[in-house]
Amino acid sequence: MTTASITTAPIPVIVNGATGKMGREAIKAIAAAEDMVLIGALARNPALLGQDIGEVLGYGALEVPITNDKEALFAMGSQQPEVPVVLDLTHPAVIYENVRAAIAYGIFPVIGTTGLSPDQLAELDAFAQKSSLGGLVIPNFAIGMVLMQQAAIQASRFYDHVEIIELHHDQKADAPSGTAIKTAQMLGELGKTFNLPKVQETETLAGARGGDGARAFASTASGCRGWWLTSKLFLANRGKPTACATTPRTGVAICQGCCSVCAGCGKCGD
Ligand SMILES: NC(=O)c1ccc[n+]([C@@H]2O[C@H](COP(=O)([O-])OP(=O)(O)OC[C@H]3O[C@@H](n4cnc5c(N)ncnc54)[C@H](OP(=O)(O)O)[C@@H]3O)[C@@H](O)[C@H]2O)c1
């Protein structure tokens, strides 16, 4: 009988979008982790090419030069004794091609970038399966958001109306966010129909009532410096108090009985 060997070698990681807001946090975490080793940093600013990513980000030397040559880096990665992971934190415009290239080189994609369409996701899934390669799509790494999604699923049994409202900084490329879409999908998978119209509804401006199912509304605000400001989930039944879950930047707060349209009652800690 043969026994599968479990490797304890650190996972080699390439970060694409290494100098962005998420990329720099990812590199800090990878540099501090014992079970991961950074082997590549992709960024597109020509002034930074060849410089050590750790030095550029102010973390001290990591001996990983910044490159914009994705193919060469993936080819190098595919020669590693341990299969590398590429963590993509770039832009919706390039994520599909990035992930296809990673899979073609046998590199596991971990997709933090949001904005892939359902068709693109399905195509990448099929391509990864054909290549016998696993991957992860994680629209939000924040624990508070995962808790809010779980809370939404629990609470949704008791409510017929749900709306997801989010506010982002003015550099947010996709709307609604991957997080809002994922939350709506999770609620949709429960098989319950939310938001049945109570009157004959007219939408004069397309999207004014939000996306289908669990309605999602996305706003951006100039001058906001956070990665995202807040995500709010409203669950409501006619004649009953509204439940509201909020993730401010640092956590999740859930309360019962706040206003159906937030007027800053403060009960949810926001
Ligand atoms: N999964 C999560 O938890 C999570 C959390 C927050 C954000 N996100 C998502 O992660 C992605 C990155 O967010 P961020 O806040 O880090 O954005 P960001 O600060 O703008 O960083 C994006 C990075 O990607 C690079 N980039 C942008 N457009 C590119 C293109 N067309 N080709 C190649 N590289 C490109 C940028 O390079 P330059 O520096 O040269 O512009 C930068 O390094 C977004 O999709 C965002 O929605 C995910």
Account of the protein in words:
With 270 residues, this protein is of the alpha/beta class. The protein has helices at residues 21-32, 53-57, 70-78, 92-104, 118-130, 143-156, 178-188; strands spanning 11-16, 36-42, 66-67, 85-88, 108-111, 136-137, 161-169, 215-221, 228-236, 242-247, 253-258. It has 2 domains: 11-137, Rossmann fold (3-Layer(aba) Sandwich); 143-198 and 208-258, Dihydrodipicolinate Reductase, domain 2 (2-Layer Sandwich), CATH 3.30.360.10. It has 7 helices and 11 strands. The N and C termini lie far apart (58 Å). The structure holds NADP nicotinamide-adenine-dinucleotide phosphate. NADP nicotinamide-adenine-dinucleotide phosphate is lined by residues 17, 19-23, 43-45, 89-91, 93-94, 112-115, 138-142, 171, 173, 227.
Topology:
Blueprint: E1 11-16, H1 21-32, E2 36-42, H2 53-57, E3 66-67, H3 70-78, E4 85-88, H4 92-104, E5 108-111, H5 118-130, E6 136-137, H6 143-156, E7 161-169, H7 178-188, E8 215-221, E9 228-236, E10 242-247, E11 253-258
Parallel strand pairs: 1-2, 1-4, 2-3, 4-5, 5-6, 7-8
Antiparallel strand pairs: 7-9, 9-10, 10-11
Helix pairs in contact: 4-5, 6-7
The structure holds NADP nicotinamide-adenine-dinucleotide phosphate.
NADP nicotinamide-adenine-dinucleotide phosphate binds at residues 17, 19-23, 43-45, 89-91, 93-94, 112-115, 138-142, 171, 173, 227.
